[in-house]
């Protein structure tokens, strides 16, 4: 396993290709050219083909459902004028909220972190109350889940409040002085997400118009496509921005955002597609393992006898699929699994595992998405409740999903910056560009655990 990198040679090649400071160069040839194994190249190419093929098939399905739904709307109890406007309005709200989170995080990281941790449970609870007011069995179940989730979020916010100061320091240092083109890339991504969401919503509406069992399956397929596509869009930003920020942290140089984004699309889409499918699944497994460990504590009861085994498996799996690997995907053109494994091994060598485990960036970005989803749900769900009560549940849930992922796309930028900050430090802790923030935090965590 590769754990040592030819750092100096790589940085010298970067210096030859780019001018320092803010003078961007025009690089015509690929800036990342490393060989991969045959199996790695095959899996990356396979997932890249699968992703693009699935986009084509979903586009065909969506167009078919939209046309069929509009033609058959008069023959069924479906009212497009009452179903579409609340959802399209929610998508507009999602874009505004996503860009607002991006701006607030850049201008005042401390307030952004505190707002995310305290607004998210309040808005999630409000969505739960709205769903309960709808009164159907499905909305009642979803409402209860939302209320319970808000309580858990509140308890978590109280628990991690002491970490806010350190999280603010790292986030502020990571996002300082970003290239102007990075913000333009985020705006472009949000715009693409808006049009893509509107397109898929039109297909969902078409399937809802007829409402057969097959149409329910079509809706589930479209929603899965939405989830994967939004994850890929988010992680494309993650790879692009983390590469730019890594170069800045490692050698104090700036890279052209357009070149980094071009390389991501041209060379890293396979790895991004794999990571977009793996990271959410492995994240759920690890999160559930931690929840089980907290619940059982130190008991040895029979029902919890496999909890330690499950936690060990979850800890092993996370080394093969974690968000930190996206830095090496963009920087060294590695396959996602190899990049995740190498990054995690590097953290171990730098004795940074406690710091990585306690990092709040992922939770901050997650809660920003729940906040955004809550605002969109309240906007669309309330409108649907007034216009046509039977549409309120589905509109509320669809709006929440779209708002969540739209905000996650916007927040991929700070998450990528923090990832690059940690990885660059782990590769060279003696780099004079880093202050004592990370070493001091590691010592503090060791004392608290000791």
Automatic annotation (TrEMBL):
Signal peptide (residue range): none
GO CC field: plasma membrane
UniProt KW keywords: Membrane, Transmembrane, Transmembrane helix
Keyword Hydrolase listed: no
Location(s) in or outside the cell: Cell membrane; Membrane
Transmembrane stretches, start-end: 49-71, 83-104, 116-134, 140-161, 182-204, 210-228, 364-386, 398-424
UniProt topology in membrane: Multi-pass membrane protein
Keyword Protein transport: no
UniProt GO molecular function: transmembrane transporter activity
Role of this protein: Choline transporter.
Protein family per UniProt: Belongs to the CTL (choline transporter-like) family.
Official protein name in the record: Choline transporter-like protein
Native organism: Cephalotus follicularis (Albany pitcher plant)
């Amino acid at each position: 396993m590769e754990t040592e990198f030819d750092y100096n040679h790589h940085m010298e090649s970067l210096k030859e290709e780019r001018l320092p400071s803010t003078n961007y160069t025009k690089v015509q040839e690929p800036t990342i050219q490393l060989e991969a194994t045959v199996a790695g190249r095959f899996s990356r190419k396979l997932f890249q083909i699968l992703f693009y093929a699935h986009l084509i098939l979903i586009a065909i399905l969506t167009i078919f459902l939209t046309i069929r739904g509009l033609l058959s709307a008069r023959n069924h109890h479906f009212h497009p004028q009452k179903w579409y406007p609340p959802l399209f309005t929610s998508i507009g709200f999602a874009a505004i909220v996503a860009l607002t989170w991006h701006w607030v995080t850049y201008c005042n990281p401390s307030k952004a972190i505190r707002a995310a941790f305290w607004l998210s449970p309040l808005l999630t609870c409000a969505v739960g109350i709205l769903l309960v007011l709808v009164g159907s069995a499905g909305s009642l179940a979803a409402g209860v889940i939302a209320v319970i989730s808000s309580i858990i979020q509140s308890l978590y916010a109280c628990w991690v409040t002491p970490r806010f100061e350190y999280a603010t320091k790292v986030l502020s240092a990571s996002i300082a002085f970003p290239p102007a083109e990075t913000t333009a890339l985020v705006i472009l991504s949000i715009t693409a997400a808006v049009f893509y969401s509107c397109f898929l919503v039109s297909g969902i509406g078409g399937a809802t118009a007829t409402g057969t069992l097959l149409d329910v399956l079509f809706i589930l397929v479209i929603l899965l496509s939405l989830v994967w596509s939004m994850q890929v869009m988010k992680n494309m930003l993650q790879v692009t921005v983390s590469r730019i920020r890594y170069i800045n942290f490692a050698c104090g140089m700036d890279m052209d955002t357009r070149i980094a984004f071009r390389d991501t699309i041209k060379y890293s889409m396979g790895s991004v597609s794999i990571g977009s499918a793996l990271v959410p699944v492995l994240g759920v497994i690890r999160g559930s393992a931690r929840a089980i460990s907290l619940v059982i504590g130190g008991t040895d009861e029979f029902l919890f006898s496999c909890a330690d085994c499950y936690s060990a498996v979850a800890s092993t799996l996370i080394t093969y699929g974690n968000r930190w690997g996206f830095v090496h995907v963009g920087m060294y053109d590695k396959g996602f699994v190899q990049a995740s494994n190498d990054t995690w091994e590097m953290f171990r060598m730098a004795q940074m595992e406690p710091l990585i485990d306690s990092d709040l960036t992922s939770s901050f970005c997650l809660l920003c998405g729940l906040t955004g989803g809550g605002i969109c749900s309240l906007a669309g769900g309330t409108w649907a409740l007034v216009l046509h009560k039977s549409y309120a549940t589905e509109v509320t849930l669809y709006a929440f999903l779209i708002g969540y992922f739209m905000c996650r796309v916007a927040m991929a930028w700070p998450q990528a910056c923090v990832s690059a900050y940690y990885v660059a430090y782990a590769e060279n802790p003696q780099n004079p560009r880093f202050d004592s923030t990370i070493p001091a935090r590691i010592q503090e965590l060791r004392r608290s655990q000791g």
